[in-house]
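Data deposition worksheet. Section B asks for the primary sequence of the deposited chain exactly as it was used as input, without tags or linkers unless they were present during the calculation. Section C holds the resulting structure in token form. Section D is free text for depositor observations; keep each observation to a single sentence. Incomplete worksheets are returned to the depositor.
Section A, Depositor: J.P.
Section B:
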Amino acid sequence: MATLQPINVRNLTCPICQEIFKQPTLLSCSHTFCKACLQWVLDTQINQQKLKCPVCKKDTQVPDGNLGKLQANRAVLSLLKEMAARGVTCMNCDPNLRTPAISYCLHCNENLCASCHRIHSGWKGFAHHQTVDIKAVMKGKMSLKRRRKCLKHPGADEELFCTECRRYVCAKCGVTEHARMGRQVIEKVALEEQLQEKVNALKHQADLKKKYLEERIEVIEMKQVTVKKMMECVCDSIHKTYDEYIQQLTERRDVLKHDLSQLFEQIEADLQTMVAEKRKMISQVDGVTSLLGRSMNLSLPFEEEPLYARETLCENIEDLVKRKDNDDHHLKVLIERAQGIAFSKNICRNELKLGRLIVSPSKWGLNTEVNLLHDHNMNYVSAKANERISPREGNRRRVRIHLPEDGLQ
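Section C:
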């Protein structure tokens, strides 16, 4: 039966936030980080298509700047799932017992159960060791400060840092190897102090940059207000111009309707006269017929004068009945005149004239062309069938020129 080795919490922490991995994302250099931590790093870069590894500085291609397209570290995910399923176990007890760990020693880099934690705390040599609650570590409420042990000298902590090798070493390795080779070795505490000073300086610069950006935001916001006022001013001009154009178009519409009314007034008057004449003839026929009927009922047929009167009434009726209707041609002419009136929409898009009325001269019997829109203020003249031009009140003038083939405009 295979022995389940306990999982060291230290191996599941992100190098950036030093907390348990959340969405562990694998870079092409094989380093793993939390996806959110990598997003912060990527956001600070100008080129969003490449991500520089925070550890080894190697580039990883990021398709479309989307970290979601990078591969997840399935091995780390598997360990996280396993740890979530069976919990964190003690690294000193028998692995098969799976004793739950309650703390983590930052010096020993080991998970400790309750029993081992009491023993560990009771040893005088470990009295200075700092332990943290394993649950707080798992919930991300506490980061792990790693204390590394030298591989060549397991009992020695790596308290020095080689500036050329860029790695921590113990005191023995620093003196026997790195110092002899002329490499600069500094204490870990000094390195951290230098790094802290650099961080403090960068924070100060960041604060100045932030203050500058906030001042620029205030300036930009003031310009935004100015631009908005400019836009409102231009918008007011647009509305004003729109209202003026609407008024002009309304006036032009009224002019066209008045012109159209004048053109149809004579046609309607002639048609009304024709109707009146027909009604008058009907009245005449009814009157003579009624009078003849009363005469036949009241007088004897052998009296001479009534007989002559009846004959005269009969002759009148015959004249009315035989009278020819010559209105067909006139009616045809009037209808053709009405059909010869049309409206042409204005095709000049750079002018605001709505359109014009077109009158066919052949159907009106005219030899003149009348301009219905000859003044800048949309004044016009109207044409009559007798070739006379009657001006309206206002700035009008008479126009008499030869008509083109396409009609009266």
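Section D:
The longest strand covers residues 341-345.
The longest helix spans residues 188-298.
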